[in-house]
Amino acid sequence: MRKKYLLTLLLAFFSYLSALAAVSIEEAKAKVKDYVENTLKLQSYGLLYAKTASTKIALMSDIEEISAPSNNWAFFVDKNPGQDWAHPCAYVFVSKSNGAISVKNSTLPPKNRAEWDAVNPQSTLKKAVKINSSDAVNPSGLINSGLFPNKNKTANNCYAVIISGGADKYNNYPRYWNNCSMVYQMLRNIYGYKRENIYTLIADGTDSAPDINLGSYDYPNVSLSSPLDLDGDGNDDINYAATKSNIATVFNTLRNKMTSSDELFIYTTDHGSSNGSICLWNERMIPTEFAAEVNKVDFVKNINIVMVQCYSGAHIPALTKAKRTIITAANSSESAWSTGGISGYGFFSRCWVEAMSGYNVSNGSTINADTDGDNAISMLESYKYAVSHDKAAVEGCWTTENGVQVLKYEHPQYWSNSCLGERQYLSGLLVDTKTLCCTLSSNALRKATSRITSTTKITRAKVDYQTYGNIILKSGFKVSDGAKFKGTILACRSSNTNSSLRSADIFDDFDYEEFEIDPEITEIDDAVSEVGGIEIYPNPTDGLLYINSSSTINKVIVADMTGKIIMDVNGGSDKVELDLSSNPKGIYVLKVISEDDSTVEKIVLE
To answer: Going by DSSP bridges, is the β-strand pair 413-416/424-425 parallel, antiparallel, or unpaired?
Structure first.
């Protein structure tokens, strides 16, 4: 009996010693903070601990899970707090028995944040949080309504789909709603999209439950329900929750509603995962699944796609098809960058909206991304502006890797089918052909996709023709009285590489060395050319060329397509005969200066 008593006493003593050696949660927190700050050397981080023990930790959007060792305290460390997912993070485990630390790296946060608490919780927000139905348009500092003036346009043939999943209520940041609000207001006010033609799939849709996390790692559970009014006009604009089934419903609806004359704009903002998936509401969609939905409306006139989530460039291979232009904020192997806070936004997304709208979101000042002067912003122009003004692409963003502060850049991507992006606008495609005539005496730009045909007489003006095909200057075309004409054959840009333009300048009073022209620009009618009182024939010619004028001809100049002057003849009468037969066959430029007028003509030598 005595031995049994002693054995019981000994076991109790060892149990007491074991209890003394056990690591408490407060001790584990201190160990992890020391590890994060002195071993990982993170200056800014988010830190959570698991309130309950588990052998498996589910990650956001169920992409993967982390196996947790038994008898350990579990912690989550966000190495770049506020950056869109996916990005580097870690799960740190502290042994309850001896305090040993083990680490498993990841790129995704835990799925159920309700099971986790902040290591340094705060009782209140530093900024007052107003969750009030009467303040639903701009709760808690979300992007304001009224960002852009109403241009009073109506785009009957334009449709749009806006998607923002947010993953879940713990990871759905205010900036995603803000991004969608900016895009929605731009479509409605600047381009005149009809409300019924814009389909919005945002977070949990019309559910009144909280779905936006207004806080941070200090305030992880402060949230509100997404305001349904995106533009402040008193109408609910969010249609659906951002789920795969609802995306299928929307594209099925568009397949039955749209026609081959209609145009579609698609915008996505959200977290992305390293395999390219879009994080929807409590689920994810891989690029091929998303492409399958978009392909349902392949019959429409054209499709613009802008994607600003992390790893968004991974969607380009799946989406590339005819009649499409695709712009992404990041390439297929990197995160996108954003500003944090309640009024946050995606860097690239905001720059792109400002380029397309023509207005600065912060102060309403005007922005001009119209580099070709046609008074419209093409997809290519908006992309080039956004890249050049995107802080994350130009200046980079600081992050910590292995204890070292490094700059990380995002690399926006652009893909377009042939020349589509240069002639693709949110208000519709550039016209295919233009036929121009009559007299033009004020500065102007005329632009078309495949052909411009002109008999215009240009006087005292600067006029520019731009096309991706041919510029045909027919009998009757005339440049006079100090006018300037420039014809430009635009080069296609279907990737991120630069390409040059081909152009010709024709002046009424050009110097010899100024004259430049490209043989691809002009086709010539097989007819007599008669401009004003000057008759030139035959054209085409096998060598002999006759020029008759109603007044005295002072000078005749002939230049080849390189601008080299091959003939400079003084006149003195109303008739001049030229022999070009000794020159190579091709296109030449003829300038005739008379007492009353002057003209420039293209001559074909056969």
So the answer is: unpaired
